[in-house]
Every structure is written in C-alpha cells, then in structure tokens.
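Sorry to interrupt, but I need a hand with the structure work. Go ahead and set the record down below:
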Amino acid sequence: MTEDGSVDVRDDGLLTIGAFAARARLSAKALRLYDRLGLLAPAHVDEASGYRYYRAGQVERARLVAMLRGLDMPLARVAEVVDATDGAEAADRLAAYWADVEARFAAQQALAGYLRGRLSGRSSEMYGTFEVETVDVPAQVVITEKRHTLADELPAWIGASLGRLEEGASACGGSTGAPFVVYHSEVSMESDGPAESCVPVADEAAARAWVAAQGRGRDVSVRVEPARRLARTRIAKAQVAHPQILAAFEAVEAWMRREGLEYDGPCREIYFADWEAAGPQDPVCDVAFPVRASAR
C-alpha cells in the first residue's frame, strides 16, 4: 500500500489488463466483457484512472470462461460451471449442458430429415401412412392444467401435469376417460402455445371443489368439454416424438380437406395407453382435430 492508501500494483503483484490479457491469451475487450457480465472481476480497479488490474491466479478462470464460451454456452450456464464448489461439480454441470446440446442437435437432425422428406414429397414414405377416421365423443367434465411452454419443455410438462391431474381425479369421482392435451396455439421453439392437459372426471361438483382447493400455484380449472366429432389417426409410441408426430397432424389435416370438413376447435393428442408399458411400435396416442361439415 502507498502512503495515501492506494494499491501499489508493483508491490501487490497485480498485472495491468494488457499484461493479464497476454498471459490469458485473451483480448482486453473480452476481459472487459467478462467483468461487465460478472464472470471475471478484476482484483483491483483504480478509482482515479479506472484502470483494471488482475492477479496471475485469475488466469485459469479467464481461460476457462473463454473455452466454455467457445461451446456456445449461455452466460448463466458459464457462471454455474466456474462458480462450482469443486472440479467434480463443475464437470457434472458441463456434462449436463452438453447432454442438452446433443439432445437439441438430435431433434434438429430429425427435423431436418422430416423437412427433406416433406420437400421431396417422400414424407409418407419416410414416416409411414396414416389411416384417418371420425369418431364421436360425448360431453365430459374435465379438470385441466394450462401452461405457456416451448417445444423443448413440452414432453416433461405433459408427463408431470397429466400425473398431477390423474392424482387429483381421485378426489373428483375418478377418471372417466383417456387424458388428452389440447394445443390452443402452436408450440415450437418460437411459439409457447399455450398447451392444456386435460383429464375427464366423474363428479363436476367435486372437481370444482378440488380446483378451488389448489390455490393460485398452477393454472388449473374445470369445465364441461362439449360433445365433439373428431377426425383422428392412431400412432405408435415411436411416432409421438417430434418431428414424426408432425406428419400425423398434417395427414389428418389433408384428409379433412379431401372430406370437406372444417376445424371445430383446437387440435389435441389423446393418450389412451400405458406409456411406460408400451413398446416403440405399440399404439398409444390419437392425433385429432374437432371437425364439422363445411358450410360451403
């Protein structure tokens, strides 16, 4: 320390930002960015000049931040890795991030394959043909949970929300039909729906009491779903995955156009089989659209 209380960078072994950047093999611009983002703060900032100074011991963290950013890791995930309590925890957090990257790439690869088939007119050849029919569904009381969700969060939310609703159905006279998910708007990586999980139940009054008891933690409700005619196609467990399921939805829509039917409500997926017990080729789900005869 100097007589006036300021830091003597020579005595304290501090490095200027230029010297530290050279050791870390980074640019001064990158170091300023990491400081602004809270990923790598200087050891000292001179109050008068604003100059940043670093310690040699910060080189490893600086290089780690740069390499993690080289993986296109979001800044919040970078902070989780570099702030881990030990190397094992940091490695686990990196592994979890990379598993997400690989899953996203696999989904994009599958979507690219689907789009190639669609653009070349070979989508039915690649993803199979779909038999479409109409069925009449009577009016039913349903308890529901609704959420705005992007495509990557959708499968986990469907499983969790239907599980909660099926558990709640026991307080509503029991379940009376297959659970289903209604899509009120598109769910993709840019559009967040919302989607609505639904479970038919026996007792409307009990269902309203159950919903009232849930408080405001989740967007749950009860309603009477009107009698509907559905145009549907039945698909196997392996076809439920994105993007294979897109082909099923498009097949039903194409059939509707040929039959002169109009949309009469949002599309849905009806899960009529035990998902855990089903094999890849076992039928588990109906892809369906409410329909009515065309007015023309």
Remarks:
- The chain has a mean pLDDT of 87.
- Residues 87-119 form the longest helix (33 residues).
